[in-house]
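Researcher: Please translate sequence to structure tokens.
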Amino acid sequence: MNQDSRRKLKQIYHLYQFIEPLLQEARRRHPDIQLVDHGAGKSYLGFILYDLFFKTPDNGSHIYSIERRDELVNKSRELAARLNFSGMTFLDLRVAESIGSSLLPARVDIVTALHACDTATDDAIRFALKKQVPTIVLIPCCQAEVAAVLRKNKGDQLGKNALTELWRHPLHTREFGSHATNVLRCLQLEAHGYQVTVTELVGWEHSLKNELIIAQQKGLPRKRPTERLHEVLHALGLEEMGGRFFTG
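Model: Translation complete:
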């Protein structure tokens, strides 16, 4: 196992410590837990979750791994067959396509997305909101879209607001854009009644994409976070992205 794989494995085992109590809570609601892992890659997370939690008892619990690279999907299917992990399904789908796919169950208990690339983290959120999933676990990745809009509108904003200095320099645009994206994601989830917790996953020496977002549907008041979401988009000159964060 190379160094990169060892780092990845450490992250996933550490993530399991956060997910395991959420799985126990989900099992109390429905013994047959249905979990969907978006942007699964080589399905490290899915295999570890299945081995440590899902394979016993054999009660109909199932993990669906969504991945658009067919070579990774095929390798995961082969490995699951060798291990006799019959409660795992690997689907060659983009995350956005999974929202309306009949290959996934109507009821989903937990959605996960570990370093899902491109806009897959946001698509995973949209999937969870559409399916009214009670628990969402995200380690976000690829927050370049907000940074691109900040960069595009920077000239118009510089004279209006001194806070634009937070992202005036190109490096700061990228880093601030990444941070702002996750702030907006959290507000989006809170606007849909979720209680959101944000923490570090592992030490920064293991991964620079180290932010863990856990959202649990509690039916909380939605007005204040919705107002805040509008306000932040306006303050940052990101009004054109409203459609991305006001979904569900």
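Researcher: Any highlights?
Model: The chain has a mean pLDDT of 89.
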